[in-house]
Task: structure prediction
Amino acid sequence: TTSDAGATWTESTSPQVSAETGDAAYALDGNRWFVAAAGRNFHIYSTGDAGQSWKDLSATGLGSSWTANWLHFTNRTHGVLSVGLGSEYPGAWALMLTSDGGLSWRPATFGAVLPAYQPSASVAP
Result:
């Protein structure tokens, strides 16, 4: 961790996960950070003390073989996570949302993906 824009660093007790996994991290502010770590199982970790201690949130709604691509929180409770769906759906990605600080996640829904109009044939002059 650093508190002086990287001039000096202090070792923290970050979550211990395999370096070969797909991980994503987000710092909400100087003290509250989140890490999505995909090892043998998918985990969401958080810290409220700038990385000195970490809590496994035991998040629900995430697949065990998924990988993290991108993580962002707008405040302490609302976040978004881009995940690869692993061996269940190779090559597929999903956008997941939380409204309880990362304890539970649900797929984002966007409503109808097609425009409300119907195309019609027309002849150009």
Remarks:
- The chain has no helices and eight strands.
- The chain has a mean pLDDT of 82.
- The longest strand covers residues 67-73.
- The CA atoms of residues 7 and 123 lie 66 Å apart.
